[in-house]
Amino acid sequence: MSATAIERPFDDEPFSLTAIADEIMERHPGYRVEIIGGHLLVTPSPDAPHARALTKLMRPFIAAGLDDGDTEVLQSVGLWLPTGEEDYAIPDLVIVDSDIDDHLVENNAYDPAPFRLVLEVTSGNWKDDLRTKVAAYAEARVPVYVIVDRKHQRVHVLTEPTVGGYANHQFHAPGQSLTLPRSIGAEVTLDVAEILTAGRPKKSD
After folding, report:
1. Among residues 180, 175, 170, 178, which one has the least CA distance to residue 197?
2. How far apart are CA 123 and CA 104, in angstroms?
3. Sign of the CA dihedral 75, 78, 99, 136?
4. N or C: which end of the chain has fewer CB within 10 A?
5. Cα–Cα distances in angstroms (integers) from residue 126 to residues 4, 51, 130, in the given order
6. For residue 1, is pLDDT > 50?
7. Which among 2, 93, 94, 90 is positioned nearest to 46, based on CA atoms?
8. Whether pLDDT at 179 is above 60
């Protein structure tokens, strides 16, 4: 997925970025539109390898029991951001408290409080995932941010949100495994090579 940032066209005239976002999604079904720092990020529909990586990722979370009881494992849930009046992001995958429905803010986006983990699988918008969203998710105090970096073939795990980013940033290469913080609700270990392989196009025989 490649993303395009659209800046405010008329700083001296009132308008709603949310209304523009809704119009874009209506005209281009399947596109993802986010507002971060007063900018629209428009992302086309994901490709099959992107979706395949998410499927691989969901399995260990579900096997650990994170989709039952106190937590849920969900895709494409809006996260209301404190970075601007209309700001929200739509992470690829999240682990949230099971009372997520009680935290709806508006525009199908939810207060950050029930979010235990957000995860992004990069595509053409990898710079947004590695830079823009790091600061935004940290400001929202999301405890764990995972980035499956298909561009550079590594998996990033960011914890301890602070001003402007995360105090702890670790990255893992193929051949390694990583264990996520138990604060997400269970101990989950991911195989880096398996995830990154799933995120690459399959070669024809």
Report:
1. 175
2. 28
3. positive
4. C
5. 11, 16, 6
6. no
7. 2
8. yes
